[in-house]
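Ops channel
N.P.: pipeline sanity check, posting one input/output pair.
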C-alpha cells in the first residue's frame, strides 16, 4: 500500500471517529453529510470527544457571541442558550445525571440501583439534581458572560463544553462496566452496558484525547487567564474523581448514565472555577 493510500485510510478512520462521536453525543444530523463507513468503535471515537464538544457547542457559542455583541443581557442569553444546547444533545447528559441521582440514592442494592437507572421514569432525587444543575449553570454562566463580553464569553462556552466531554473518558476507562454482557431481551433491546456493546477508551485513547483538548484549553486560557484555567481544571478534576469514586462505591463500575453525569458535574465545576477567579 502506498503512502497516499495509508494517508487516505488514516483520514477516513479519523473522520469516521469524529462523526461517530458527534452522533453519539448529540442529535446533530452529521450522518446526512458524512456517513460513518464502519461500526462505531469507542477505542477510537472516544478520543474525539473534545472535538465533538467543540462542534456541538459551536452553534450556541455563535448565538452567545452575536447576542452579547448586540447588547442583550447575559442572563437572557443563558436562558435561551442552555435549552438550545439541551435540545441539540437530546438531554443525553441531563438524563444521565438524573438517573445517577435516582439510582445511587434510591436503591439499596447494586441490582436495584442499576434497575432504577435503567427505568425511564424520574424520581425525586433526579428532579432535584436537574434543578440544581440547571440553576447552577444559569447563574454561573450568566455571571461569566456578563464579565467576559462577546468574544471571550463564546470562547469560555465552547471550551467548557469541550473539556467537560473529555472528562467522561476517565470513569469510562478507570472503572469496569457495571452491567454484564447479556443477550437481547424479548423486545429486542440490548440490556448490556455501553462498553459491552461498543468498547471503551484505552491508554492511547486517553493520550489522544488529552492532545485534542489543547484547542479548548487555549480558548479557556484566553477567556479566563492562566489562574482561572488552573482553578477551573482543578475543580473539574475533583468533580470527575469524586463521581468516579461514587460510581465504584454504589454500582461497582460505570454505565452510560455515569458518563453523562460526569459531563454535567465537570461542566458546572469549570464554570464555578472560572466564576471565582474572573
Amino acid at each position: 500500500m502506498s503512502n497516499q493510500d495509508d494517508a487516505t485510510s488514516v483520514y477516513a478512520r479519523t473522520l469516521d471517529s469524529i462523526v461517530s462521536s458527534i452522533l453519539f453525543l448529540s442529535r446533530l444530523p452529521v450522518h446526512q453529510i458524512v456517513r460513518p463507513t464502519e461500526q462505531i468503535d469507542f477505542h477510537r471515537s472516544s478520543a474525539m470527544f473534545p472535538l465533538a464538544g467543540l462542534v456541538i457547542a459551536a452553534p450556541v457559542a455563535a448565538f452567545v457571541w452575536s447576542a452579547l455583541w448586540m447588547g442583550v443581557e447575559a442572563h437572557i442569553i443563558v436562558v435561551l442558550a442552555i435549552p438550545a444546547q439541551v435540545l441539540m444533545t437530546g438531554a443525553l447528559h441531563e438524563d444521565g445525571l438524573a438517573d445517577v441521582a435516582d439510582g445511587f440514592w434510591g436503591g439499596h442494592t447494586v441490582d436495584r440501583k442499576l434497575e432504577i437507572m435503567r427505568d425511564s421514569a424520574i424520581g425525586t432525587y433526579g428532579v432535584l439534581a436537574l434543578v440544581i444543575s440547571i440553576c447552577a449553570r444559569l447563574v454561573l454562566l450568566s455571571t461569566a458572560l456578563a464579565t467576559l463580553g462577546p468574544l471571550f464569553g463564546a470562547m469560555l462556552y465552547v471550551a467548557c463544553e469541550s473539556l467537560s466531554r473529555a472528562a467522561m473518558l476517565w470513569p469510562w476507562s478507570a472503572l469496569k462496566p457495571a452491567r454484564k454482557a447479556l443477550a437481547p431481551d424479548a423486545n429486542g433491546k440490548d440490556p448490556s452496558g455501553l462498553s459491552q456493546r461498543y468498547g471503551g477508551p484505552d491508554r492511547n485513547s486517553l493520550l489522544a484525547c488529552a492532545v485534542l483538548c489543547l484547542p479548548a484549553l487555549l480558548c479557556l486560557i484566553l477567556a479566563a487567564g492562566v489562574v482561572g484555567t488552573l482553578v477551573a481544571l482543578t475543580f473539574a478534576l475533583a468533580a470527575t474523581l469524586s463521581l468516579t469514586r461514587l460510581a465504584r462505591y454504589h454500582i461497582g463500575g460505570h454505565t452510560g448514565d455515569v458518563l453523562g453525569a460526569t459531563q454535567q458535574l465537570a461542566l458546572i465545576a469549570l464554570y464555578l472555577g472560572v466564576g471565582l477567579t474572573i
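N.P.: looks fine end to end. The chain has a mean pLDDT of 88.
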